[in-house]
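user:
I keep going back and forth on a fold encoding question. Separate attempts, laid side by side, tell us more than any discussion would. Would you put together a sequence-and-structure record for a protein of your own picking? Write it directly below this note and I will take it from there.

assistant:
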Amino acid sequence: MKNPIEVKYFRECIPTKGVWYSLHGDVFISVMLKSKPHVRRKAIPPDNKRDNKLSDWHREWQYDKIENQYGEVGSKTYEENIIVDNETHRIDSLVKNVAIEFQHTLSVSLDEMNARFIAHRKYGYIPYLVINLTSSTFSEFTSSFSSDEKSPLKTKLNKWTNSEYCKANKLFIDLDDCMVRVVNSIESGYLTLRESQFVQELLCLEKDLVDKIKNDRERIKRREEQRIIDKKRADKRALEKERESFYHEKLDNPDFKFYRFCFANPIIKPYVMTHNGEIFEYWSDSEMEYGYLEKYHRYYSKESNFEILYKTVSKIIETEISTYRGLQTKKEFKYDYAEIHLKEQYKIIAKFKRKGNRIELIPE
């Protein structure tokens, strides 16, 4: 082994051919690749097996980004051990009370990852999980995230969104062009952030999340309030248009002749005038019983529980006439009288009887 150079900070570990470094008692090796020279930690194999290297993605996050940003003299951030329920758990990166797991191999079982989440939280830490989906772009993520169609990316997302990390809003996804934090409690289901934000604002991410959730709820509330305002305006415009149409209908439509009569008759008018200007709809029906034909003309307000029921009663007169087919019965209808019932809140408030031009109030 070469004599490693003692350094206080990871940023002092500059890749140099043949140079090793010692940081926090660990040895870091210079790897002089043409494409990406870097420094990686040298594992201490207990059984003379070859060095166990992290993936480049994991290594960069653990050392180049987190340790480089938060490592202090005599205090490292990487690979800290805790014991929970007599079981040792190694945390990839620990900054203050934020315990971060970096997962490059996405085939790892959820049971194992959930066990880490539970242990970290039980120890009093805020557990974060960052998974590697840098082979996908943000556009591909949003397309799969909001779709029900099956795809390899959707399968991966379905797995990790069922993790305890995700249920607690602690799942981060590293994409090719940005990062996302999956957040179940906001409308879109996720927040976007830059990699530099995650690193530099790591200790503020929980406060930022609370603010974002609050802002999202306020935005939804404002949108709903605006939707209600817009609906009221639309309803008002529709009502005004309908009122204008009804104004002509009540004057000209033959179906509304009894409606016009009630509003014009001096005896009935005082009982109906409070509803003048309201929009009414018309319904009619008839039935024959005991030698009489009863026809019902119902006018009911769309704006209040008020209605006018105008019933005409005609006597059925049957006569026999001779035709080339023999004797046949001919029916004629002789108008007899009319009854007018005014109802409000489904209760009769007044009854009138009309005989010719004579109108009389029928006492209850």
User: Anything to note?
Assistant: The chain has a mean pLDDT of 92. The chain has nine helices and 17 strands. Residues 280 and 301 are 4 Å apart (CA to CA). The longest strand covers residues 326-344.
